[in-house]
Amino acid sequence: MALSKLDNLYRQVILDHAQHPHHHGHLTTADHEIELRNPTCGDVLQLELVLEDDQISQIAFSGEGCTISQASASMMTDAVMHKTPAQAEAMIERFSDMMIGDRDEDWSLLEDAAILQGVQQFPARIKCATLAWKALHKALKSDDQRTTTGQIMNHAETEETNQ
User: Fold this and answer.
1) DSSP letter string over the chain?
2) How far apart are CA 58 and CA 3, in angstroms?
3) Residue 113 burial class via C-beta count within 10 angstroms: exposed 0-12, middle 13-18, buried 19 and up
4) What sections of the sequence does the record tag as coiled-coil (predicted)?
5) Could you give the CA distance from residue 32 to residue 12 in angstroms, rounded to a whole number?
6) Which domains does the chain have, with CATH numbers?
7) Left if phi > 0, otherwise alpha if psi is -120 to 50, otherwise beta: which for 159?
8) CB of 127 closer than 8 Å to CB of 40
9) What average pLDDT does the chain have?
10) Mean pLDDT of the 110-118 span
11) pLDDT digits (tens, 9 = 90+) for 11-53
12) Is the pLDDT reported for residue 94 higher than 90?
């Protein structure tokens, strides 16, 4: 397949996830909730999840944002569904490594989200792509499992939000 056809396919997958996001909405029984904002471009993401039997049994997101942030959130929710928190954290770390340009990894663990690797060519869009992943990390690490609000500050930071 020619490179331009492959790029077109990737764009189509991203657009499909943005226009028809998976796991979009709210959960009535969420035990972890967070809202993160990307002040650079105005993306806002609310993430809700239910942990049951040491796995993510339900996950949903809502909010407003660009195509990249919405597609990434959709892809992330697909990828982490039914994963343990430890498995989800490993995926978050792998996604972050991918965004900073690490090329020595097997990205298949990330499922559809692996196609977002091209975003690293556009540094201003990295925060858009990582917003949902950082929200999940913060939600899983939060002592207070209910609503937390913060802003994503730097894609390379380990503690990415202000309280």
Assistant:
1) --HHHHHHHHHHHHHHHHHS-TTBS--TT-SEEEEEEETTTTEEEEEEEEEETTEEEEEEEEEE--HHHHHHHHHHHHHHTT--HHHHHHHHHHHHHHHTT--SS-GGGGGGGGGGGGGGGSHHHHHHHHHHHHHHHHHHH-SS-S-EEEE---TT-SS----
2) 37
3) buried
4) none
5) 32
6) 3-151 (3.90.1010.10)
7) beta
8) yes
9) 85
10) 89
11) 889 999 999 999 999 999 999 999 999 888 899 999 999 999 9
12) yes
Q: Look up residue 39 and give its amino acid.
A: P
Distance between CA atoms of residues 7 and 4, nearest Å:
5
The first and second tokens of residue 62, run together, are 């809502």
Joined tokens for residue 126 = 């990295």
Residue of 98, 83, 99, 100 whose CA lies nearest to 136:
83
Which residue in the block uniquely carries the two structure tokens 């989800």? 88
